[in-house]
Amino acid sequence: MISRNDPCWCGSGKKWKKCHFPQISFDQLKKEYLEKYQIILKTVEEIKKIKHSCKIASKILNILCTYAKEGVTTNELDILSKKLHKEENAIPAPLGYGNPPFPKSICTSLNEVICHGIPNDEPLQKGDILNVDVTSIVEGYYGDCSRMVKIGEVSEEKNRVIEASYECLMRAIEICKPDSKIYEIGNVIEEYAKKYRCSVVDQFVGHGIGLYFHEPPQIPHHYNNVDIPMTPGMVFTIEPMINIGVKEAVISKEDGWTARTKDLKPSAQWEHTILITDKGHEVLTL
Ligand code: MF3
Ligand code: CO
Ligand code: CO
Predict the structure, then answer these.
(1) Which of 118, 168, 251, 274 is deepest in the core (most CB within 10 A)?
(2) Would residue 12 count as lying in a domain?
(3) Which residue's CA is the closest to the ligand 1 atom numbered 4?
(4) DSSP H helical segments within 22-155, as ranges?
(5) What is the residue range of 76's domain?
(6) Residue 2 lies in a domain
(7) Is 127 left (phi over 0), alpha (psi -120 to 50) or beta?
(8) CA-to-CA distance for 194 and 186, rounded, in angstroms?
(9) Does the pLDDT value for residue 277 go beyond 90?
């Protein structure tokens, strides 16, 4: 039996799957992905809208990050985020999301906070590291991205965990293309985290996105066996949370959201929304 990756029988030198392999239509594939995995493959029209919301989210994120300086509070960043969303006719997706309803328009995760930090009135201090996470809804479509900011000079460990999480994200994006498997993302991230002597959080995952905030599939950042093949029209986030110490997260009993490292050592995260294309991938939140 000839397999998908064997040379095509026609002698073109191309793989069978890239040549005379019986092609199935996008509509058929869309139906198959929905039934088999509950994944919504996006149409060309939907992709246009999602690209637009991703551009708005990353624009707002960039502005917020230039404002995050010593003495500024994360509540001030939240107020600015609300103003910027209004100016773009966009809605900040976190506000009122989930249970208990998330109380602010962005997540701000400081130092040992892994994710889902709630903006507050504490001024940022020299030596802090901060993740700002923006999810914007524009004309009903979602874009999601986050990045790290250093407040002044930061410790060797904080620099290392920021670099580790950034490299994990970018290396994982590189392998995204049709027929790559979702589990390959976790393999790459674990490999690079190890290189930086860091651990990979497994209690939170990336996610499909576009028509809703969190769609299937889950995108684990740790070793896993999700063997779903990537295919054109898939839109999902990759958002590795990387720790200096242990990987375990503890969620605050007070607010039901703030996730801290169990050992209170620093954590860092970067996030992009990715589209799988015929040729490979496109990072939508640049
Ligand atoms: N933006 C986060 C993510 O990357 C989710 C935040 S949920 C919230 O998936 F309610 F805290 F906003
Ligand atoms: Co996300
Ligand atoms: Co996010």
Answers:
(1) 168
(2) no
(3) 144
(4) 26-37, 44-67, 74-87
(5) 38-283
(6) no
(7) left
(8) 12
(9) yes
d(CA 27, ligand 1 centre) in Å: 31
Radius of gyration over alpha carbons of the chain, in Å? 20
Look at residue 98 in the predicted model and tell me its pLDDT: 98
Distance 67 CA to ligand 1 centre (A): 21
Q: How many CA atoms lie within 13 A of 268 on its CB side?
A: 25
Close Cβ partners of 205 (under 8 Å, ≥ 6 residues apart): 218, 219, 220, 221
User: Which atom of ligand 1 is closest in space to residue 93's alpha carbon?
Assistant: 12
Q: How far is the CA of 105 from the centre of ligand 2 (A)?
A: 14
In a domain, 54, yes or no: yes
Total tally of structural domains belonging to the chain: 1
Would residue 26 count as lying in a domain? no
Q: CA 15, CA 3: separation in Å to the nearest integer? A: 9
Q: Containing H/E element for 143?
A: strand 141-150
* pTM for this predicted structure: 0.96
End-to-end, the C-alpha distance of the chain in Å comes to: 43
Q: Which residue has the tokens 């720790």?
A: 243
Is the Cβ atom of 247 under 6 angstroms away from ligand 1?
Answer: no
Distance CA(158)–CA(167), nearest Å, equals 14
- Here the CATH number for the domain that contains residue 89 is 3.90.230.10
